[in-house]
Write a structure and sequence with these properties.
By secondary structure, the chain is mainly α. It has 21 helices and two strands. It folds into two domains: about 425 residues, MFS general substrate transporter like domains (Growth Hormone, Chain: A), CATH 1.20.1250.20; about 60 residues, no CATH class. It has a two-stranded antiparallel sheet. It starts with 11 loop residues before the first strand and ends in a 6-residue tail after the last helix.
Length: about 550
């Protein structure tokens, strides 16, 4: 007698309107777990990098004498991720999952190597952009692959497991990077990420199944290029890039009325309007676009993306400002600053796994999502009360609720989206949701860095009369140690007030995220034994038409 077929996961998967036959007993077999481990390996590398950069940004920027631009190291990564996230949704019409994942991982690896070999701050930023492009594909494709393999009701649970892997990587990434940086130099922290990434990509390419039916024809290259939506990509890059550059120039000390700042803000607004108009026109003409209104305009999709955008904006600020607090205000080493991100990483693991299990057992997610968003607000309010007399225990525990709430809402919001769209639109919807999450993180780092630097400059001007001293304090952490004790204390007070104001701003954004999530509706998730892939029920004709529209225009390698 052969092995009993699992009821929990069905081996028959629908990809792009076709039925593919994968191995039996996916949830129990060695094959299934090898797929998961190879995908999770790339996520682990991404997680290691995320907290490593958050920990090392002040030190790297200080090394190049650009402390005031330390947020650029995160912003360049997030800008590239924002643009490339929806692009990978189009790439899947032409490349198989393994090839697309290897492409994303290769970009991530090349960018990481470029960071390690950078000899200037601007070269480093360019390399971070390449890393961000690859990171966008790693996160988006990991989620889509998991949705292919898992039934909708179990999707949250496996998303939780993936977040546990991410949390473990984030937990050790900061401390390890800090130790390597303090011992051997910050470049070593980048080199150390490469072996795990290479091994994961090799395993993924070998082990991840490929669809059985692949077509090839001479229009493949043209179809692939047309699916990338170059006009939309260019306008999106111009819009977000102009806004980030305007914020960065303002952060450097220029007023909002300065011709450079104002001109870039106007460019960002015009590019955004053009992006909406051009994308809508292309969609009406039947051409693939980055953000399809037929998907984004659905109620659950729209409000989930808005709330996820606001949540990620707040989370991006917290993740990059906490290391700055410990490195500058507490005069800690990079290793110590990285260790203080550990509670957040533990919260990421616990929150995602718990919420995934709750969804699996109850089949409900709406109330859980609203409660999840409360936790980051509590953390932000606690952080905004930090001061000279804050205890060590408070500094360790204040960020824990933020990690729990953030990861829990990542799970519930993804389930809310997958459950509300037809199965054929899941890849599009997933890419769009990650796009808004990444956009929120991108703007969160830039906006809060601009706010923090503006308040810092104002506080320093009330304490110091010499502009050169003020400039030196904002440009280099090392300069603080050269100040007389009284002046150093004044400078640290200015930093403290600026960071507390930034944390308070993130709390307000968190409240707005709760309000945006309230209209999200509950959808039936089916039973644990339902087929993999999930998605709203659709008729045979709808599935056939969608499959032809999405899969018939080009081939996949």
């Amino acid at each position: 007698m052969g092995p009993r077929r699992s009821k929990g996961l069905q081996p028959e998967l629908r990809l792009f309107g076709r039925k593919e036959l994968w191995a039996d007993e996916l949830d129990l077999s060695l094959s299934f777990f090898s797929h998961r481990l190879s995908v999770w390996g790339t996520n682990l590398t991404f997680a290691l990098s995320s907290t490593a950069i958050a920990t090392l940004s002040p030190q790297i920027a200080s090394h190049f004498e650009h402390v005031e631009l330390s947020s650029y190291i995160g912003s360049c990564f997030l800008l590239a991720s924002t643009v490339f996230t929806p692009l990978f949704g189009g790439v899947l019409d032409h490349l198989s999952r393994p090839v697309a994942m290897v492409l994303a991982g290769s970009l991530f690896g090349v960018g990481t190597l470029g960071c390690a070999m950078s000899n200037s701050f601007w070269t480093l930023l360019a390399a971070r952009g390449v890393t961000g492009a690859g990171g966008a594909g790693i996160l988006t494709l990991s989620s889509i692959i998991t949705t292919d393999l898992i039934s909708l009701r179990e999707r949250g649970y496996y998303q939780g497991l993936m977040m546990v892997v991410f949390g473990c990587g984030a937990a050790v990434g900061g401390p390890i990077a800090g130790v390597l940086s303090d011992t051997y130099g910050w470049e070593t922290a980048f080199y150390a990420q490469l072996p795990l990434l290479v091994i994961s990509l090799i395993c993924l390419f070998i082990l991840l199944p490929r669809p059985a039916h692949l077509s090839h024809h001479h229009h493949k290259r043209t179809s692939l290029l047309s699916s990338l939506d170059l006009p939309g990509t260019t306008l999106l890059l111009l819009s977000v890039g102009s806004l980030l550059l305007a914020l960065s120039i303002h952060t450097s000390g220029f007023a909002w009325g300065d011709i450079r700042v104002a001109g870039l803000l106007v460019t960002a607004v015009l590019a955004t309007v053009l992006f909406v108009v051009v994308e809508r026109g292309r969609e009406i003409a039947g051409v693939r676009v980055l953000v399809a209104w037929e998907v984004f305009g659905q109620k659950n999709m729209f409000w989930t993306c808005v709330s996820a955008f606001l949540m990620s904006l707040a989370n991006g600020s917290i993740s990059f400002m906490i290391p700055l607090w410990f490195v500058i205000v507490r005069s800690s080493t990079s290793a110590t600053a990285g260790l203080h991100l550990l509670p957040n990483s533990l919260g990421l693991s616990f929150g995602s796994l718990l919420s995934g299990q709750i969804i699996k057992v109850t089949g409900r997610y709406r109330v859980l999502g609203l409660l999840s968003l409360v936790f980051p607000v509590l953390s932000a309010f606690a952080l905004s009360r930090w001061g000279e007399n804050t205890s060590s225990a408070e500094e360790w525990l204040a960020i824990l609720p933020a990690g729990i709430g953030y990861s829990s809402y990542l799970v519930t919001s993804l389930i809310a989206i997958i459950a509300s769209v037809p199965q054929a639109q899941i890849a599009k919807a997933t890419a769009i949701s990650y796009f808004f999450r990444t956009l929120g993180g991108t703007l969160g780092v830039a906006i809060c860095a601009s706010l923090q630097q503006a308040i810092l400059g104002k506080e320093l001007r009330t304490r110091f009369d010499d502009p050169s001293v003020i400039a030196s304090i904002t440009h280099s952490k090392a300069y603080l140690s050269t100040l007389p004790p009284f002046e150093k204390e004044l400078a640290l007070q200015a930093y403290e007030l600026s960071l507390r104001a930034t944390f308070l701003f993130t709390a307000i954004v968190g409240v707005a995220a709760i309000a945006a999530a309230y209209p999200v509706e509950e959808h039936h998730l089916g039973e644990t034994g339902d087929k993999a892939g999930g998605g709203k029920k659709e008729t045979v004709e709808e599935a056939r038409t969608e499959g032809e529209n999405e899969g018939g225009s080009g081939s996949r390698v």
